[in-house]
From TrEMBL:
<keyword id="KW-0131">Cell cycle</keyword>
<comment type="function">
    <text>Cell division protein that is involved in the assembly of the Z ring. May serve as a membrane anchor for the Z ring.</text>
</comment>
<keyword id="KW-1003">Cell membrane</keyword>
<dbReference type="InterPro" id="IPR020823">
    <property type="entry name" value="Cell_div_FtsA"/>
</dbReference>
<dbReference type="InterPro" id="IPR003494">
    <property type="entry name" value="SHS2_FtsA"/>
</dbReference>
<keyword id="KW-0132">Cell division</keyword>
<dbReference type="Pfam" id="PF02491">
    <property type="entry name" value="SHS2_FTSA"/>
</dbReference>
<dbReference type="Pfam" id="PF14450">
    <property type="entry name" value="FtsA"/>
</dbReference>
<dbReference type="InterPro" id="IPR043129">
    <property type="entry name" value="ATPase_NBD"/>
</dbReference>
<keyword id="KW-0472">Membrane</keyword>
<comment type="similarity">
    <text>Belongs to the FtsA/MreB family.</text>
</comment>
<dbReference type="InterPro" id="IPR050696">
    <property type="entry name" value="FtsA/MreB"/>
</dbReference>
<comment type="subunit">
    <text>Self-interacts. Interacts with FtsZ.</text>
</comment>
<feature type="domain" description="SHS2">
    <location>
        <begin position="10"/>
        <end position="197"/>
    </location>
</feature>
<protein>
    <recommendedName>
        <fullName>Cell division protein FtsA</fullName>
    </recommendedName>
</protein>
<dbReference type="GO" id="GO:0051301">
    <property type="term" value="P:cell division"/>
</dbReference>
Length: 411
């Protein structure tokens, strides 16, 4: 637990393919979290969201943490870390349990969720999250959001399970622990982003969140207020940079700068007259080229990303249910023309999601790049202070710990 005076500190560590970002939030229950520190360092130890070089990742984490500590004026001991990558899979599962005392208690919710987690998963995978979507009490047809206190005999839960590769999760934890930090929890990146950028109306209506980072494009579909599908695609902003480097025959760092500065995702936005200067490889002189042809190459790659997103949405079976359309977030969502291109291709309303529900540093709060980091802070604070009325059980069991475990989906 990180503390500063009477307020609790919470730290989100977004371990991304292009950079590691540590955010420090200060909160007291009932108030919004205030972001008081940020540290960021480029990361070279990940490929497509998965750790491929421990040493290098440890260094990036260490730098980001040190920077955040300096800014926030605190010592960081534990973090909520993000995980993503195409090893992430999801499935919807059901669990049934008898109700002990004729009235649904939190303990019954725990038990019925445990029943939903009792599914056969391969030995090299583990359940990262088990999230209740809705409940059925006896034979009521309607999905019940919160059955606590209701009378019945048998409780059924519809849950969303997120499954990940054990090794991938272990390697992320190992990197964090090597820095002398505890992992409070590992949280699916796109689930965190969803907490930061989606409105409750969008979740109710049905919405697809697409978080386009450098190494992965992560998708979460929400229907009737609850997560219904999640996936991670191994194609994202890095591929756009590679395309530019290839097309312009220019080194990758320069290609990245050109992308950030001049690229747009819709070719018709670039006029024929505009041209850009391109540094060459070696000591050859720089060249000029029309911005329009850069935009065409970028548009082609973004089209491919959105085609894959659409295919994933179809595969999920929820395509007809996302009436609120799509929310784009992550670093690659900042490029001009992306929203227009997505709307044109997917025929649905699209907006860029920026982190909500927190106050503090402006560079963080209004920036889609920090959606995951802010989401980690929000989810961490909910895990530490569950918004659940404490019920007096006859035997004073350690209710709080049960709540925490219920939320974390621990075994």
């Amino acid at each position: 637990m990180n503390r500063k005076g009477d307020k609790s500190l919470i730290v989100g560590l977004d371990i991304g393919t292009s950079k590691v970002v540590a955010l420090v939030g200060e909160y007291s229950p009932g108030n919004p979290i205030e972001v008081i520190g940020i540290g960021s360092h480029e990361s070279r130890g990940l490929r497509r969201g998965v750790v491929v070089d421990i040493e290098s990742t440890v260094q990036s984490i260490q730098r980001a943490i040190e920077e955040a500590e300096l800014m926030a004026g605190c010592e960081i001991r534990s973090v909520y870390a993000s995980i993503s990558g195409s090893h992430i899979q999801c499935r919807n599962s059901q669990g049934i349990a008898p109700i002990r005392d004729g009235e649904v208690s939190f303990a019954d919710l725990d038990r019925v969720l445990d029943a939903a987690k009792a599914v056969a998963i391969p030995a090299d995978q583990k359940i990262l999250h088990a999230i209740p979507r809705d409940y059925v009490l006896d034979d009521s047809q309607e999905g019940i959001r919160n059955p606590v206190g209701m009378t019945g005999v048998r409780l059924e839960v519809h849950a969303h399970l997120v499954v990940c590769a054990q090794s991938a999760a272990a390697n992320v934890s190992k990197c964090v622990q090597r820095c002398g930090l505890q992992v409070d929890d590992l949280i699916l990146g796109v689930l965190a982003s969803a907490n930061a950028v989606l409105t409750s109306d969008e979740r109710e209506l049905g919405v697809v969140l697409v978080d386009i980072g450098a190494g992965t494009t992560d998708i979460a579909v929400f229907v009737q207020g609850a997560i219904a599908h999640s996936a991670s695609l191994g194609i994202a902003g890095d591929k756009v940079t590679e395309d530019i480097a290839h097309m312009l025959r220019t080194p990758t760092p320069e290609a990245e700068q050109i992308k950030v500065r001049y690229a747009c995702a819709l070719a018709q936005m670039a006029t024929a007259e505009e041209s850009i200067q391109v540094p060459s490889v070696g000591d050859r002189p720089p060249r000029r080229m029309p911005r329009h042809s850069l935009a065409q190459a970028v548009q082609a790659r973004y089209e491919e990303i959105f085609e894959m997103v659409q295919a994933e949405l179809r595969r999920s079976g929820f395509e007809q249910h996302v009436r609120a359309g799509m929310v784009l977030t992550g670093g690659a969502a900042k490029m001009e023309g992306v929203v227009e291109l997505a709307e044109e291709m997917l025929q649905m309303p699209v907006r860029v999601g920026i982190p909500q529900h927190v106050t503090g540093l402006g560079e963080v709060v209004g920036n889609p790049v920090h959606a995951t980091g802010v989401g980690l802070l929000l989810m961490g604070s909910q895990i530490e202070n569950p918004r659940r009325p404490v019920i007096s059980t006859g035997r004073a069991g350690n209710v709080l710990n049960r709540f925490k475990n219920w939320f974390r989906g621990e075994f």
